[in-house]
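question for whoever is on the cluster today: can someone run the full assembly for these? two chains, 943 residues total. i dont have access anymore since they changed the login thing
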Amino acid sequence: MPKDGIGASVKRKEDYRFITGQGAYTDDIDRPGQTYAVFVRSPHAHARIASVDTSAAAAMPGVVKILTGADYAADGLGGLPCGWQVTGKDGPMVEPPHPPLAADRVRHVGDQLAVVIANSAAEARDAAEAVAVEYEPLAAAASIDAALSPGAPQVHDEAPGNLCYDWELGDKADVDAAFAGAHHVTRVELVNNRLVPNAMEPRAAVAEYDRATREYTLYTTSQNPHVIRLLMGAFVLQLPEHRLRVVAPDVGGGFGSKIFHYAEEAILTWAAGKVARPIKWTAERAESFVTDAHGRDHVTVAELALDADGKFLGLKVDTRANMGAYLSTFAPCVPTYLYATLLAGQYTTPKIWCGVQAVFTHTVPVDAYRGAGRPEATFVVERIVETAAHEMGIDPAELRRRNFVPPDAFPYQTPVALVYDSGDYEGTLAAALADADYNGFAARRTEAEARGKLRGIGLSAYIEACGIAPSAVVGSLGARAGLYECGEVRVHPTGSVTFFTGTHSHGQGHETTFAQIIAERLGVDIDAVEVVHGDTSKIPFGMGTYGSRSLAVGGSALSRALDKVETKAKRIAAHLMEASEADIEFADGQFTVAGTDKSVGFGDVALTAYVPHNYPIEELEPGLDETAYYDPANFTFPAGCHVCEVEIDPDTGAVEIVNFAASDDFGNVINPMIVEGQVHGGIVQGVGQALLEGCVYGDDGQLATGSYMDYTMPRADDVPSFTVSTRTTPCPHNPLGAKGCGEAGAIAAPAAVMNAVHHALASRGVSRIDMPATPARVWQALNA
Amino acid sequence: MPTVNMNVNGEAVSGEVESRTLLVQFLRETLRLTGTHVGCDTSQCGACVVHVNGVSAKSCTMLAVQCEGADVTTIEGLADGDALHPMQEAFRDNHGLQCGFCTPGMIMSALDLANRNSAPSEQEVRDWLEGNICRCTGYHNIVKSIMAGARAMAAGQGG
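^ ran it for u. tokens below:
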């Protein structure tokens, strides 16, 4: 194995530019003649737009153009499309129009209705404040409960009762029958708190139009530039793809929030054609809070039926999910196909029913945020399992063991549509318990009690469906796109390699991980490999990065492209060595004729491919440049166990995480250093959800947590260091055996933390506390 | 418009600014030193940390005209040619960054800590980072990086 090949913790190739301040993020891009855009946004959660007067603003210094919702409507262009159609009990979901600039009604604080373009950002900001909008405020429905109450204000006329869909999975009567024979039933009511993703780089875009070539270029903070090009070009602005280039350069974190096609991207591109000058827009953080798609926001009641031995008999889950004011790109699939299908967890629960009502409210749209549906499912399953264990007096680890899908049961068909590929749930449980010193907990609790502290320990044995996704499967479930991936391996004449990937790296380290795979396979030095992503003019196609898919799907496309490179290179090598193709072996960058000492290096073969003086030209084209598209056979199923131990100060209600251990099965690992970093980051987002973060709307639809002064982001002193490890059962259905690691921490951690908090508080008679378990909430629960 | 003069990364610079122009805007837009980032508008995230007269400061919370005559160091001023600063090396060696957006502010903030405390404990590092938010790393490897970087700086000075 080359020293920088698969399995090595190679230092990241991309780091040099970031640690020297030479990253190139969208806001760092300046184009000649550039103008600046500022959007006029609604201060009301719900209002009719009576008039928009731009005359005073248009006369202000530096103003180039002002465009309103009426201007957009007059051009006859499209609304923002939704990429997934869910069909509920009563038919297809309600899919209201989503105009990029509102013309007659605004439906959430931050909804945009005009854009001001000026020579400087300050001039644009000044003029935007001078746009006179006359609103007729209307009553708002700012929460799920408010939106579903009789007589609630309507978000869309098309959606009576504010219902987007009423959907179910499973046979309810069948599950009810299972409950009839139960020895014990555990019931929990849960709130999965609304979160703001808060990638540190605010969204930004630069759009320009070249009159000579009639080509539009959009630089944007995106996780999937080809998807933006397709959605914006085909559905919104009606621009052909060959004259629309979308570039997602260095992107400062995404966590899902930069998957979606946002209004600002379309409006900037449209406006760039009108002003024929480049336009830049960069969100202020306060603007991000009211325009980036939010995450989670479920209210759930769940019941678990168990027999006398603690075997699970059935699970019933009833969830209401907030969609916000409009359907964001992938919103409808999050609380359905990415949620209900994971409710078997790691267990053999034979009967499962889940009902989901998706609800429109006068709030920012909700869509996929790190984990997307799977954290919500894990929270339901792992909270109810842990609660059942305590109710039945069975150790929570033991109750899980009694119900695990056993290691010899794979592939395992769950009652909720998925076929798990591989796993060893007892293995990851045992490893996490050992790292957490689970057996020593009782002594630590006694010691803490002596200090006046409440101590608790909680488990979360999670599973996720990643490697998104087999196109035929998701197509049958309403996805309007295929979810394969594309990779092109271009071997240069002297043997160096450029890999073009349709995935996108915004912190994940693809430039290193993919280079390791290439170094391993082709025997080239890792410094002779360059990975290119994020530009539709360079990469054939791509679906981007989300759902822990880049390695499992994009890496598989790379692997298939490398297969093609190797096949062709072997034919060239056979010709050079006057041997039969079947006798050529390839290892460590050398082609050899089996059983002889004849060999030729990869670099010589590459040169021959491009300088074909001695070449089988009648049977083989010159060049060594291969593209592969890979559509996965199944989802992948990363799984593992996280254990959290907390100490609570009953005088203040403050929760301290004193230990956190994770054991994860991500299939084969390419770069352990990068994988551990992904787990650390995910855990802290999960800890943030459990203890700190909560997006709060007032009843009037005003966002109360609209800045870092009010929305509590996890900081370094809120969390400890972690003990993380991996145990591997390879994915059996993709060429790398990889499952994906990006979302695990955020999926597993909330339940682990909240199980620990409940465990600590149980001795004081507290049975329910919702996320985030802030000091105020904990103190109030202790003093209720 | 007022003219402001300052020393940035060892070079005398001057430029016309509005009186409302922030130091970070002057650095990014006038000098095109785009390594210093803006992640919030409330002085909370620390992506914009630079050094002003040797001490870390949030460049989103200073006016450019306040820095008249000051010595300003940004992330671009740390490496000596191709030779990285030990704190930069430590971030790379310990995987102390993912998306890289908070990284310049983290490194500049870390340097100020290391200048004050050559062997900070884990808790001292975590407390010091109160003004810097990272959404990617969970801080685990940033803390490791800063402890290693401070040690490397101290060893370099000792040798």
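summary bc i know u wont read the tokens: Residues 509 and 674 of chain A are 7 Å apart (CA to CA). Chain A has a mean pLDDT of 97.
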